[in-house]
Design goal:
Length: 121
C-alpha cells in the first residue's frame, strides 16, 4: 500500500516590490531636494551685496596723518644732549691736542656710523 501526502503550498509574501518602490521614491525625493538646495545656493551667490560703509573714516585719516608725521620726524636727525656733549668733547680734544687730529680711518669710521644711524632710524 502506498500513501501520498499532499500539503497545501505556503504563500510567501511578496516583499521585493514594496522595497524597490520605497527605494525609488527615496531617490526621487532626494534628487528633488538636492536640486532645490543647489538652486537656492546658486541664486544666493549671484546676488550682489551692497554695503554702504564709508571707505575713509576719521580714524583712518588721523592714522594716515600720524604716519606721515612719523615719517617726517624719522628723516630728521635728532640731536640729544649726549650727542651734543660728545661733539663738544671732540672739539675740545682737537683744540687741546691738534697733533692727534682726524686721520682718514677715523673719518671713514665716522661716516660709517652716520650711515648706520640713518638706516637704523
Amino acid at each position: 500500500m502506498s500513501a501520498t501526502l499532499q500539503t497545501s503550498a505556503i504563500d510567501r509574501p511578496q516583499v521585493a516590490g514594496p522595497i524597490i518602490a520605497a527605494i525609488v521614491l527615496a531617490l526621487a525625493i532626494g534628487a528633488a531636494a538636492g536640486s532645490l538646495i543647489t538652486r537656492a545656493v546658486v541664486d544666493r551667490a549671484d546676488t550682489d551685496v551692497v554695503v554702504s560703509a564709508p571707505v575713509w573714516d576719521a580714524q583712518k585719516l588721523s592714522a594716515m596723518e600720524g604716519r606721515q608725521v612719523a615719517a617726517q620726524v624719522r628723516s630728521v636727525p635728532t640731536w640729544d644732549a649726549q650727542k651734543l656733549a660728545a661733539m663738544e668733547g671732540r672739539l675740545l680734544a682737537e683744540q687741546i691736542t691738534p697733533a692727534i687730529g682726524w686721520d682718514e680711518a677715523k673719518l671713514a669710521a665716522m661716516e660709517g656710523r652716520l650711515l648706520a644711524g640713518q638706516v637704523g632710524d
